[in-house]
Design brief:
Elements lengths: L11 H16 L12 E6 L5 H12 L3 E5 L13 H9 L4 E6 L4 H8 L4 E6 L5 H15 L5 E6 L6 H10 L5 E6 L8 H8 L3 E5 L2 H4 L5 E4 L10 H7 L18 E3 L20 H21 L11 E2 L3 E3 L15 E3 L2 E2 L6 E3 L1
Parallel strand pairs: 1-2, 1-3, 3-4, 5-6, 5-8, 6-7, 8-9
Antiparallel strand pairs: 10-12, 11-14, 12-13
Helix pairs in contact: 1-5, 1-10, 2-10, 3-4, 5-6, 5-10
The protein binds phosphoric acid mono(formamide)ester.
Phosphoric acid mono(formamide)ester binds next to helix 2.
């Protein structure tokens, strides 16, 4: 049994296969209309979503399957104090596969340990969002025809941007990819992401979008996420730090691909929407097809649960990330590899 907790759970070969199947689904959706007849997808969304939840729902329905679930924690028994582990144990007996979004980082690892069906991470706090990355990779493949030899600009909230962290993890495995990381000081890419995925890779950091735009093959804009800030005044100060508009695109390449995981607020002006380089709405549409391919692939896998997130208890260490699931899930063993928390990948502190 396979899970998708982190994009690195899949090899580049498996990603190529998923992308190829998704492209075939776009061309010939009727071939797959009964691929998941009689199967049930559980969509457990403890955080708001439009694209991810609805594209998973649409994907399963397009494969002939059914969907059950909830779109907010308040309408589940979590509101009565039930743990995530117990919730997942229950849904494992009602559904054949689970897609879950949770505000706590590492929550899908906890779920994958107790689930008896495949678990898909549909976003865990500011940590990872691997199915968005599959969506992004399908978009890049359709637009550029390759994953290597690309200069990828990523702009906005690189600190809390889970889509950014997963995209960097995925793209760092390809040849001759240069990352241009565009963010204000307060929202720079966290060290744990740099250490894990960018060691030995080519990247530059800047806070200037206008200066960076001319060299980019891909510009991946992101929203400054109000919901992740602990200090609302900092959000107010940073919320409109980058606004991509038609004027700024004058120096960009003719074949630039402008991407955004959406939702957007102000960071892409509506005057960009009609530019042929604007790929973000097609990107969202691609999410439906790649999730169809993913569901089909995971439902075919058999055998034991492939949980790869192992570590050891260490009474001397404490995870200092307030958003880590290890602080809230009752009865959860706090596990570390060296001084790194298994759940959220951040360095722990000595007590
Ligand atoms: N891209 C994305 O995750 O969008 P939603 O929050 O609407 O699911």
């Amino acid at each position: 049994m396979r899970n998708l907790v982190d994009i690195l759970d899949f090899t580049t070969k498996e990603i190529d296969e998923l992308v190829a199947v998704a492209k075939d689904m776009i061309e010939s959706p009727e071939k797959y209309a009964h691929a998941c007849d009689g199967k049930i997808l559980g969509t457990l969304f403890f955080e708001p979503s439009t694209r991810t939840r609805l594209s998973f729902t649409s994907a399963m329905m397009s494969l002939g399957g059914n969907v059950l679930g909830f779109s907010e924690a308040a309408s589940s028994s979590v509101a009565k104090g039930e743990t995530l582990s117990d919730t997942i144990r229950m849904v494992s007996v009602y559904a054949d596969i689970i897609a879950m979004r949770h505000p706590k980082e590492g929550a899908p690892i906890v779920a994958s340990r107790v689930a008896t069906v495949p678990v898909i991470n549909a976003g865990d706090g500011g940590h990872f969002h691997p199915t968005q990355t599959l969506t992004d990779l399908l978009t890049i493949s359709r637009k550029k025809g390759r994953f290597d030899n690309l200069t990828v600009g990523i702009c906005g909230d690189l600190k809390y941007g889970r889509t950014v962290h997963s995209l960097i993890a995925a793209m760092s495995r390809y040849e001759n990819v240069k990352f241009v990381l565009i963010a204000p000081e307060e929202l720079k890419l966290p060290d744990y992401v740099k250490e894990e995925f960018l060691t030995g890779k080519t990247y530059v950091e800047t806070d200037n979008l206008e200066n960076a735009i001319a060299e980019l093959d891909i510009l991946y804009m992101t929203r400054i996420q109000a919901e992740r800030f602990t200090d609302p005044t900092q959000y107010e100060r940073l919320k409109d730090v980058y606004i991509l508009d038609a004027a700024k695109l004058k120096s960009a390449k003719a074949d630039l691909s402008i991407m955004h995981p959406l939702p957007r607020v102000n960071e892409i002006a509506v005057d960009v929407d009609d530019d042929p380089r604007a790929d973000y709405f097609v990107q969202a549409e691609n999410g439906r097809y790649i999730r169809m391919a993913l569901i089909m692939m995971l439902l075919k896998t058999k055998g034991i649960n492939d949980v790869r997130y192992k570590g050891e208890e260490n009474a001397e260490l404490e995870c200092v990330n307030p958003h880590c699931i290890s602080h809230t899930e009752r009865g959860l063993k706090k596990l570390f590899v060296g001084d790194t928390c298994v759940y959220c990948d951040q360095h722990a502190a000595r007590k």
